[in-house]
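User: Predict the complex.
Assistant: Input components as received:
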Amino acid sequence: MLSTRTGRNCFGKRKENKLHPHCLRLSIHIDEGEYANPLGSRKGKNKMTNICFKIGNFDPRINSSLDRIYLALMVKSYVLKKYGYKKVLQPLIEDFSQLESDEGIPIKTESGVWIMRAVLVHVLGDTLALHDIYGMSGPSANMFCRICEISRNNLISGNFGGNFYIRTVESVQNALISSKDGQQSSVLYGIKTSCALHLLKYFRWPNSQTLDPMHDILEGIVPMIIKKILWEAVYRSKIITEHEVNQLIDNFEYGEAEMRDKPSTNFTKLSLKSKTNNLSQSAAQCWLLLRSFPFIFHEILKHNENHREIIAALLNITYISFSHKLSSEMITCLSDSVTKFHKLFRICFPTTNAINKIHHIIHYAQVCRENGPIAHFSCMMFEAKFKKSNAQSRTCNNFKNLSLSLTKRLNLKQINSISKHSYFADRPVIFN
Ligand SMILES: [Zn+2]
């Protein structure tokens, strides 16, 4: 039987599938993108849901270019909402079913016939998209976690721990049956409908859980913590003014390679006092700001030992979460840093309600142990891929069927890159 789990252990080494050792392991990524001017009258009409896939069998050294991500589907979001995943994804599910069947797809080569088989192992994306495709309630539901059964009350009361029941195929099925029977509300348990991808033979989402460090850390926890620390320094301790914050960020000497992601100097009274947890910076900018934070704001961190330690713990978590090679010591360190971060969060910001992402990181060590480095599930590359199509949407002059023009252009570009790419490693990979 094919394994639905990924084929890598914590050291990034592949676990071989004994029956079909050359079976391809596919991950699909799902995301929504706005292609019209967000302030214009056509806002929402050209909102697209993009699904693309990546082959996980290759070493990240030869598999990390944007050309190694293949477009599977581009559909207007309102069409998807109207007809549902089961209907829209039907052709894709049929293809996957053929690929995962024992017959596979025979391909004639010079040395004979080779049977291509592939299996879907992971679905990646932001929380909203994943909850939608899995048939779960939104991230604001009572049981908001895809991996365990933590409730909203636990999160608010400061119990971020990993001591909750883990969701299994059976528990999800039971919740679905009891919500259909009217025994409990679907909102309470967080499961609304069955997942369209369960029509496949091997894919069951509770068995292949992953979390995305880009959305959790760089677009969630990092901006939240930096904003809280700067707010306390500017308005509570009054060590620095918002003008000086901007000046320090602007004057810091970033490396040449990092200049592209230099953080924006957009800190104002309004932005620091607002209740949202974002900094209006991209994920790459937030990452750079976190790395340079101890150097730029060492004077602020000198005044508060706990703030210094929470930044150190966050730096550790970020470093290990984005490492493509992990040792068992690094996973233990990740687990310890997350525990330390949770403890410091309660001490530093006792009146702040934690966001879902603060709980998600408790599962990182376990995900790494089961599925290999969590960096492999980061959506950064996928998001970058669709930035390119955003630029093309402005030049293609197709105002009625935008998805047709964009898929044609993206696929032509893909064919060109496939014909030129070599999948052979040019030097041996040495594992310590
Ligand atoms: Zn959880």
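The pocket of zinc ion is lined by residues 145, 147-148, 150, 359, 363 (CB under 6 Å).
Let me know if you want any component modeled separately.
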